[in-house]
Structures are given as structure tokens and as C-alpha cells.
Amino acid sequence: MRDRRSRLVQPELRESSPSARETPASAIGEAPNAGLWAHDWVRSFTVATAAGLFLAFVGAMDSGRLPVLIRLAYWMPLMWGGTAVGHGMSWLVNRIPRARSNTWLFGALLSVVIAVPITFIVWGYSRLMFNGAPPLGPLFGSVLVISVAMTALMILVTQPGRVTHAPPAGAAVSSVRFAERLPAKLKGAVIYAVSAEDHYLRLHTSKGSDLILMRLSDAIAELDGLEGAQTHRSWWVARDAVESARRDGDKMVLTLKGGAEAPVSRPNVKPLRDARWY
């Protein structure tokens, strides 16, 4: 049974837990790699386009001696084709249970399995464009480096935010460490959300809001023990603080108790929906 102090930290949220919780919902962040590359085609090809422009203008893989238009004609199709291959290989690697549960193992495996077919694609396209191609061995090494960089970039732009978990029912728990950081006027308040403002954090609570000097990443680590999620790079939200959700153009916004509105970044929209936040 939860200890008395833990109940005092978040009394309102704990009392308002809906009965719908009896039906298990998928956890945010579950199968965290399922969305990599395949999560958002538009985002993937946007990143590929930016990477292709960069490689063309810096003259990667000894292409700097060619005119800029030729470099663009060479690199842009390769990056777009590589992204399409990445989507297919992401689905394949995601079938491996250990890789599915470890983001960086997933990324390492994905980089290698992408590099193999892309090496032959680059080799063939080089012969088509320039009537010649570099040896496969050195070419594979160059393609692997680009594959690792692209996969790491896709992980960074598509990963959902960090999750904090409520203790299992009936388990003995210590109080949420972050509650000790509440300013005097907010002591004993229900924590609805935490948002970053420059070098400060704004605390949204049942007793109002205030600022403290702290990094959001450190705050999220101390918020474990409260069920919530990082809905955006600058917001953490307690699940039970969400009153409603609405679309604002192509964005999702959560309306919280107390009236604050928390944005939901695109990589978090589906995980939050799957976890039945809205």
C-alpha cells in the first residue's frame, strides 16, 4: 500500500484516477524503435533531403571535384533511396526482440543492414552516372559511416519523450523526490506539469505556478513515481492532469487541470494515443 507521505504529495491526482485504468493500456515508449524511419515518412524524407544537400555541398566521398548540380543529381536520389531502404530494414530489424527493446543496439544493427544494400545501390548508380565506381570494400566503409550518422539522426528526431511510472499497486514506495524541490508556497501541491523556460523550470500545480532553477532532464529523473511523460522537448506532464486534447493545425495540445496547455511533439502523438492519454 502506498505510504502516507506519497499520498500527500499527489492527493488529487491519486484520488481522481479513472476506473478505466483497470483495462491495461500500452505503455508510452513500448517497442521504442517501432517508429524509427517508418514512423513518419514526411519527417524521414525531410531529414534525407537535408542530408543530401549537405553531402552535395561539402563534396562527400570525393565528389567535390564535380559541378554542384551534378553532385545534387548524385546525392539526392541516393539519400531518398536510402531512406526508402531504411523504412524496409527498420521493419525487419524490429522483428528482433532484443533489438526492439534497446534503441542503440537497434540503431547499430540497422546501420549495418542498411549499408549492405545501399553499397550496391551506390556502386551501380556511380557506374550509371560516371561510367565507373569505387571498389566495393572502401565504398562499404564510406556508406556505413553515412548510414550510422543517418540512423543516429533519425533516432534523435523520432524517439518519443521519456516516461515516468507510477509505482505498482500495493507496492511500498518512497515519496517522489521532485516534491522536495517545490517552493514553500507550493508545498503539498499536486504537480500537473513541468515546463522549461530558458534555464528555469515552471512548475504547474494545484496551488499555482512558480519557477525553479533546474534542467528538465534532471527533473524528469526525480519525477519517477508519478505517472507521466515528456510530451515535448520542453514539457513533462502528469497523466492524470490531462483534462482534454485538441488539434491545433497539425499539432496536438493537451489542456491540463489549472488551465495550462502542453504541446505534444509529433514523435509523441502516436505513443500517447496508444497509451490512451486521449
Outline of the structure:
By secondary structure, this protein is α+β, with helices and mostly antiparallel strands. Helices cover 45% and strands 17% of the residues.
List keywords for this structure.
alpha+beta, 9 helices, three-stranded antiparallel beta sheet, about 280 residues, six-stranded antiparallel beta sheet, about 45% helix, disordered N terminus, 9 strands
Provide an overview of this structure:
The protein has helices at residues 4-9, 11-15, 41-58, 68-93, 97-100, 103-130, 136-158, 216-222, 266-274, and strands spanning 163-164, 191-197, 200-205, 208-213, 228-232, 235-238, 242-248, 251-256, 261-264. With 278 residues, the chain is of the alpha+beta class. A hairpin with a 2-residue loop joins strand 3 and strand 4. Helix 3 runs antiparallel to helix 4 (68-93), helix 4 runs antiparallel to helix 6 and helix 6 (103-130) crosses helix 7. Mean pLDDT is 80; it is low at 1-39.
The strand line-up of the biggest sheet is 1-5-6-2-3-4
Spans where pLDDT lies below 50 across 5 or more residues: 1-39
Radius of gyration of CA atoms, rounded to a whole number: 23 Å
Summed up, the helix count is 9
User: What is the number of beta strands?
Assistant: 9
Structural class: alpha+beta
What is the first-to-last residue Cα distance?
Answer: 28 Å
Proportion of residues in helical segments: 40-55%
Give the overall shape, derived from the CA principal axes. elongated
Average pLDDT value? 80
How is the biggest beta sheet arranged?
Answer: 6 strands, antiparallel
Portion in beta strands: 15-25%
Order of helices and strands: HHHHHHHEEEEHEEEEEH
